Amino acid sequence: MTIALAMLAAVLLDLLLGEPRRAHPLVAFGRWAAWCERCTYGASRWRGVLAWSLAVLPLVSITSGLAWFAWQVSPWMYGLYSAVVLYLAIGLRSLGEHALPVASALEAGDLDGARIAVGRMVSRDTLALDDERVAAAATESVLENGNDAVFGALFWFVLLGAPGVVLYRLSNTLDAMWGYRTERYERFGWAAARIDDLLNLVPARLTAATYALMGHASTAWRCWRLQAPQWDSPNAGPVMSAGAGALRVRLGGPAPYHGQWEERPVLGEGVAPDAHAIRRSMRLVRMGVALWVFVVILAGWAWHA
């Protein structure tokens, strides 16, 4: 029950306060990870394993030690500590703060403003995007980051407490930094990419199932089954195909990266994405979070009943 109440407190803190504007722990971790990369870099998978271990394991150990100490003081201290750690790890409000300005700009007919806003969410060449592709990019980002920044963190928090959520979010951050198939990171970033894939194996599918339950279920299940295997990421495929199906919009398709258009499979089915699709995707994530919190609190109450 302590974990359940800590989860509720963390979600409420995120909704009330949002992410810290100054000295966010993940920003500080990014600097630490960059230092680890400079000290260990080499075109070798083992160098990447060493860098990942140096960057992540000491911080997870510290988190575990503090959690143990808090539990020795009192369950309430442990719950407070856990809630603060989870609050710092999730980004539900931040997701809306990035996505909704894109929708507002599109609704106002301000394509340039929408391109600038969506450029804060995605890595594709936003100047080449029209209204529909801007809306698609924002919607895809909301669905994918719903797993990476919200549901995945909640899953590992329930499973392993504060150390679990720290392990997950730091691994996710390293994947975003090193998990590229470029000449520099093809081998060095292999460990970061594979560990992130492993940690997301279950949460991604629970996220996809949540999207299906909160949206148009039959379409979501069908798109998940047929379209997810075509996507290059084993975890993003289920999340984005189920999310697109739940919203009944068409996502995926060609997208511009680094001056070239890359072919991608189509996701979902139905209408073309627009500003309303972005808002609906945020509603889907928020409803899913409410469901998860309710289920965890109910399970905690039943356990202690």
TrEMBL record:
InterPro entries the UniProt entry points to: Cobalamin_biosynth_CobD/CbiB
Main location: membrane
Cellular component GO terms, alphabetical: plasma membrane
Annotated membrane topology: Multi-pass membrane protein
Pfam families named among the record's database cross-references: CobD_Cbib
GO biological process: cobalamin biosynthetic process
Transmembrane feature ranges: 50-71, 149-168, 284-303
Subcellular location(s) per record: Cell membrane
Pathway the protein takes part in: Cofactor biosynthesis; adenosylcobalamin biosynthesis
UniProt cross-references to NCBIfam families, sorted A to Z: cobal_cbiB
Function: Converts cobyric acid to cobinamide by the addition of aminopropanol on the F carboxylic group.
Family, similarity comment: Belongs to the CobD/CbiB family.
Name of the protein described by the UniProt record: Cobalamin biosynthesis protein CobD
